[in-house]
Amino acid sequence: MAEAQWYVAHTYSGYENKVKATIEKTVENRHLEEQILEVRVPQMDVTELKNGVRKQVTKKMFPGYVLINMIMNDDTWYVVRNTRGVTGFVGPGSKPVPLTEMEMHSLGIQTDIPIEVNFGEGDTITVKGGVWKDTVGVITAMNPGKQTVTINVEMFGRETPVEISFAEVQKMN
User: Fold this and answer.
1) Tally of domains within the chain
2) Fewer Cβ within 10 Å of end Cβ, the chain: N or C?
3) In a domain? residue 111
């Protein structure tokens, strides 16, 4: 079986998040989870100064582009290429070109072998860093590719799923 690589799809500007959501929904509906692993819209935090007020905002690093980690075949090419808002893949003609190791590293995308963890779905964990520090939760989902776990946290009287990095999680005894 071929190895998944990162490809770049060109979208209409402003449609990046809509394209991401549409591809993720199509992957779920067509059961292509093993072939299209992840869709990302790279973002970065910047400080803007407007009317003398500093404000932290998140901006797209590459407006008009979406990164997709997938195994390139006819099915995956068709799904991405025919998603509303996608104008094509980055590459000569209709042949998509995967990102190189160096390009992925500069974007902060890890290509290392996922780290081994001593917890799994259903385990109770404590968050040991970040915004949710000292929060206790039960793992409802794991994403080894992104190296994250999803736990439910009570916010405003409701259970809300929160995605947390493996590095910030510790299994409770």
Assistant:
1) 2
2) C
3) no
DSSP string, the chain: -PPPEEEEEEE-TT-HHHHHHHHHHHHHHHT-TTTEEEEE--EEEEEEEETTEEEEEEEESSTTEEEEEE--SHHHHHHHHTSTTEEEESSSTT---PPPHHHHHHTT---SPPPP-S--TT-EEEE-SSTTTT-EEEEEEEETTTTEEEEEEEETTEEEEEEEEGGGEEE--
* Same-domain pairing of 26 and 57: yes
Provide CB contacts within 8 A for 12, sequence distance 6+. Answer: 64, 85, 87
Backbone angles phi, psi at 62, to 5 degrees: -130, 80
pTM over 0.70: no
pLDDT per position as a tens digit, 83-129:
999 999 988 877 888 888 777 777 766 555 556 778 888 888 888 88
Strand partners, 49: 54
